[in-house]
User: What shape does this take?
Amino acid sequence: MQTVSIGRRIVALVIDWFAAVLSAAAVAGSTVPPEGLRESFLVSGVFIVEVGLLTGLLGFSIGKRLVGLEVEGPDGRPIGVPRALLRTFLLSLVIPALLMNHERRGLHDIAARSRVVKLGS
Assistant: This one.
């Protein structure tokens, strides 16, 4: 298995966060950029739901798709919504994503039994 660069993951994360900011603005009328704690939590919630659902059902989020990455389980298939929501929640806490093993799997991936690979690998 080939490891995926941190740079590609960060670009995907930034794209997904921006999509969550725009979604929160469109659905709930928050400002761009978000102002205050309430809007920040709103964007975090939208991020978790949006990325979690897409990753669980399709195997990739908007950002991961654009940079050519996907999330898969040990069987090579999408990890399903519950595990993807757990993974995305832990990712949103930041620290679990920064603590990686030798395969560049963060604690969020280890907890969800997932890994990030190049699309179509």
